[in-house]
C-alpha cells in the first residue's frame, strides 16, 4: 500500500506561469481531461507522467486511485527539480546578494509592499532585502503556499525513500534560475512591480487554475494563466511573450532529451508542470512525435 496516497498538497514552482497560448481544437479538448498519462517506448515497460500545478493557500487536491497503481508499478521516481534541503540551500545562494540592496533598487514604497508577500512565502525581511530582483519575481510567480503541508514533489521524494525506489531530478538549480537571470534588470523590475501591484489578481488566477486542475480540465488552465494580460502593459508584453515562449520551448527540448534514457528502461513515475505539457508545442505532443505512445489515464480515458 502506498503510505502517502492521500495527497493533500501539491505545487509546481517557478515556471508554472509559462503556459502555452496554443490550446484549441477537439484533440486538445480530449487531451485536457486527464492529469496522468502512460508513456511507453517501443519494447519497453510503461512509464507514467503526472501533470502538476501550483496549489494556493487554503486549497488541497484530491487524487484519484489510478495514481496508486502507477506508483506501485514504478521502480524510479522523478521530479523536475530536487526537493531536498541541499537543493534549497543551493538555490538560496544563487538568489541572494551579499548586501541588502533590493530596497534601494525598487524604492522604499514598493519594497514595503513586497515584504509581506515574500514573508508569506517563507522569506523574512532580512532575507528579502538581499534578494535579487529576478529572484523576487520568480518567487511571486508561485501562489502563496500552504506552509503546513508538503508539496507533491516533496511527497514523491519521501515515497521514493520509504519504498527504496531510485529518485532523480530532470533539472538543476542553474536551469531553474537561468531564464529569470537572462532578463535585463529593467525587465526584471517591470515584472516584479507588476506582480506586486496585481498580486491579488494573480492569487485569484491560481485559485481558478487549481479548480480547473482538480476537475481534470487542464485545457482551461492556460486561458486563466496569462500573466501579461493581468499585470503587464502592451509594451511590456512585447518582451514578456517571446521570452515566455522561448523558455518553454527550450525546457521541452531539454526535458525530451533527458527523458530518453529513463523511458527506454520503463517503469518510471515522474511529475512535470502542466505548463510544459499541453498544446501543439507541448511535451505530450513532442513525446508522440518522437515515437512514444502516450495515453491519458483516468477521468474516463484509460486506454
Radius of gyration equals 19 Å
Question: Biggest sheet: strands, sense, closure?
Answer: 6 strands, mixed
Strand content of the residues, in percent?
A: 5-15%
From the spread of the alpha carbons, the general shape counts as globular
Portion in helices: 40-55%
Q: Please give the count of helices.
A: 15
The side-by-side strand order for the widest beta sheet comes to 4-3-5-2-1-6
Give start-end ranges of low-pLDDT stretches.
Answer: 1-30
> What is the number of beta strands?
6
Structural class designation: alpha/beta
Q: SSE order, as H and E?
A: HEEHEHHHHHHEHHHHHHEHE
Output mean pLDDT: 81
Give the termini separation: 24 Å
Tell me briefly what this model is.
The chain is of the alpha/beta class and 303 residues long.
Keywords, please?
303 residues; alpha/beta; 6-stranded mixed beta sheet; 15 helices
Amino acid at each position: 500500500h502506498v503510505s502517502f496516497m492521500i495527497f493533500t498538497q501539491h505545487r509546481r514552482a517557478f515556471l508554472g506561469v509559462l503556459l502555452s497560448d496554443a490550446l484549441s481544437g477537439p484533440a486538445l479538448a480530449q487531451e485536457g481531461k486527464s492529469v496522468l498519462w502512460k508513456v511507453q517506448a517501443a519494447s519497453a515497460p510503461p512509464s507514467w507522467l503526472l501533470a502538476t500545478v501550483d496549489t494556493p493557500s487554503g486549497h488541497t487536491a484530491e487524487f484519484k486511485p489510478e495514481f496508486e497503481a502507477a506508483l506501485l508499478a514504478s521502480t524510479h521516481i522523478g521530479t523536475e527539480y530536487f526537493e531536498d534541503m541541499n537543493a534549497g540551500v543551493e538555490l538560496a545562494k544563487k538568489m541572494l546578494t551579499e548586501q541588502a540592496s533590493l530596497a534601494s533598487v525598487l524604492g522604499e514604497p514598493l519594497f514595503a509592499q513586497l515584504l509581506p508577500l515574500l514573508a508569506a512565502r517563507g522569506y523574512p525581511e532580512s532575507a528579502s532585502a538581499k534578494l535579487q530582483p529576478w529572484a523576487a519575481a520568480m518567487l511571486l510567480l508561485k501562489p502563496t503556499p500552504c506552509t503546513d503541508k508538503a508539496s507533491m514533489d516533496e511527497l514523491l521524494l519521501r515515497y521514493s525513500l520509504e519504498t527504496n525506489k531510485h529518485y532523480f531530478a530532470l533539472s538543476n538549480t542553474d536551469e531553474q534560475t537561468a531564464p529569470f537571470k537572462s532578463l535585463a534588470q529593467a525587465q526584471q523590475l517591470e515584472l516584479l512591480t507588476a506582480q506586486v501591484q496585481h498580486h491579488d489578481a494573480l492569487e485569484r488566477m491560481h485559485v481558478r487554475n487549481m479548480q480547473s486542475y482538480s476537475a481534470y480540465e487542464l485545457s482551461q488552465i492556460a486561458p486563466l494563466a496569462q500573466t501579461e494580460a493581468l499585470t503587464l502593459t502592451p509594451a511590456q508584453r512585447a518582451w514578456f511573450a517571446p521570452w515566455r515562449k522561448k523558455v518553454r520551448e527550450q525546457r521541452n527540448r531539454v526535458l525530451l532529451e533527458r527523458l530518453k534514457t529513463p523511458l527506454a528502461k520503463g517503469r518510471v513515475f515522474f511529475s512535470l508542470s502542466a505548463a510544459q505539457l499541453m498544446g501543439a508545442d507541448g511535451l505530450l505532443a513532442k513525446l508522440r512525435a518522437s515515437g512514444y505512445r502516450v495515453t491519458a489515464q483516468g477521468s474516463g480515458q484509460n486506454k
